[in-house]
Design a protein that fits this description.
9-stranded mixed β-sheet; 3-stranded antiparallel β-sheet; alpha/beta; globular; TIM Barrel; 2 domains; 40% helix; 410 residues; binds iron/sulfur cluster; binds S-adenosylmethionine; 14 strands
């Protein structure tokens, strides 16, 4: 959840949605994202909406405190029940993300999940994920999460190399994320993800190979590998500007992506989205698939975004303002957008083209269709799916995904 909020129209105080947003809801899956906006320390590259204890001191008062947080989120889940009214859908996925969810006691994450269960009910095979920082969990904590109903866990590994972790300001030691995978398996988690970052200043191809091998060797069924984004306003951006650390270039990112694809394929992982690989269809992150396929999700927590039937809204960013709204019985929504059909078409192309299933060619406007024909000729789209009416990126296309997407949305 990056920290900047978009502009939009104001949100009604009661959070009510226009009637058309709920039309046809029964045919769409529903998920919940629960944001936990707290971290022990801030990593220099991170632009997410998260706060350390010292950043919160003096702003937001007791309302912004971690101690009350699970109850505040439960209040938003009750509001969601009122807004969605008689909507009978059970929840297919819950994803607790951050920030560092595992800074809260496991019982608090359990209370947030229980609120979803009580208000909406969970589908029998619901996917219930939490993110976790490797240094913040132990076998007992993991057992408590399982007890509360979590069945998937995502650890922020980032790298296996100490000097890379240091540039990223990570506080865990090499080896700890792999141990976390073993502990999560022993606790009974069905699905385990490791997040990796490539292209960190000072990282070599060999460092990246070592990170991939360590991650794969730990036995997760899912790995996300992200190119480091140097976000404006972060400590890392300032360090690069001052010349203290070098900037990594796009060619390095492309080389690292190719190394990742080669290592993952050899180990039996398949890409299903440009930055995501899984060992089987069951290992895919169903929650992220909801985002990528335009389903409905309610994002609870400060700065969280939601989408229901073509209406997108976002919450007040600061934990104090967020909690204040709920304490006063108001929606914490800060603004919203009602997406026109054209916006939804463009959004579908942006998201679906990054998937291994690709996007239907008949979504494209005439200029986009011409760009797709050129991309096919340039080896950026797969010929077989193209002949069957779908735009699916080749490996070279994945390296240039942002540029291909830009051309196809024309
Ligand atoms: C929202 S973070 C929260 C997870 C958890 N707090 C952690 O850091 O392990 C989720 C993932 O986003 C990725 N990420 C965050 N900032 C990034 C950046 N600037 N560039 C690339 N990936 C980033 C990291 O891989 C991280 O594990
Ligand atoms: S621990 Fe995760 S969310 Fe927190 S600052 Fe670091 S990357 Fe961001």
């Amino acid at each position: 959840m990056p920290s900047a909020l978009p502009d939009g129209e104001p949100m009604p105080e009661d959070g009510a949605l226009p009637g058309h947003a709920l039309a046809g809801a029964a045919g769409r899956p529903l998920g919940f994202y629960l944001h936990v906006p707290y971290c022990a320390t801030r990593c220099g590259y991170c632009d997410f909406n998260t706060y350390t204890a010292s950043e919160l001191r003096g702003s937001g008062g007791a309302l912004a405190s971690r101690d009350n947080y699970a109850d505040t989120v439960a209040a938003e889940i009750r509001l969601a029940r009122e807004v969605l009214g008689a909507d009978p859908r059970p929840v297919e996925t819950v994803f607790v993300g951050g920030g560092t969810p595992t800074l809260l006691p496991a019982a608090d994450l359990g209370r947030m999940l229980a609120a979803v269960r009580e208000e909406f009910g969970l589908a029998p095979d619901a996917e219930i994920t939490t993110e976790a920082n490797p240094e913040s969990v132990d076998p007992r904590y993991l057992a408590e999460l399982r007890e509360a109903g979590f069945n998937r866990i995502s650890f922020g590994m980032q790298s296996a190399r100490q000097h890379v972790l240091k540039i990223l300001d990570r506080t865990h030691t090499p080896g700890r994320p792999e141990a976390c995978v073993a502990e999560a398996r022993a606790a009974g988690f069905d699905h385990v993800n490791l997040d990796l970052i490539y292209g960190t200043p000072g990282e070599t191809d060999d460092d990246w190979r070592a990170s991939l091998d360590a991650a794969i060797g730990a036995g997760p069924d899912h790995v996300s590998a992200y190119a480091l984004i140097v976000e404006e306003g972060t400590q890392l951006a300032r360090r690069i500007r001052r010349g203290e650390v070098p900037m990594t270039d796009d060619d390095v990112h492309a080389d690292r992506y190719l190394i990742a694809e080669e290592r993952f394929t050899a180990a039996g992982f398949h890409w299903y989205e440009v930055s995501n690989w899984a060992t089987s269809a069951a290992g895919r992150c169903r929650h992220n698939e909801l985002y990528w396929t335009g389903a409905d999700w309610w994002g609870a927590g400060p700065g969280a975004h939601s989408h229901v039937g073509g209406v997108r809204w976002w919450n007040a960013k600061h934990p104090g303002a967020y909690a204040q709204a709920l304490a006063e019985g108001r929606s914490p929504g800060a603004g919203r957008e009602i997406l026109a059909d054209e916006d939804r078409r463009v959004e579908r192309i942006l998201l679906e083209l990054r998937l291994a299933d690709g996007c239907p060619l008949d979504l494209l406007a005439p200029a986009g269709a011409r760009a797709a024909a050129r991309a096919l000729a340039d080896g950026l789209l797969e010929p077989g799916p193209y002949d069957r009416g779908r735009a699916v990126l080749t490996l070279r296309g994945r390296l240039l995904a942002d540029a291909v997407v830009r051309d196809l949305v024309d």
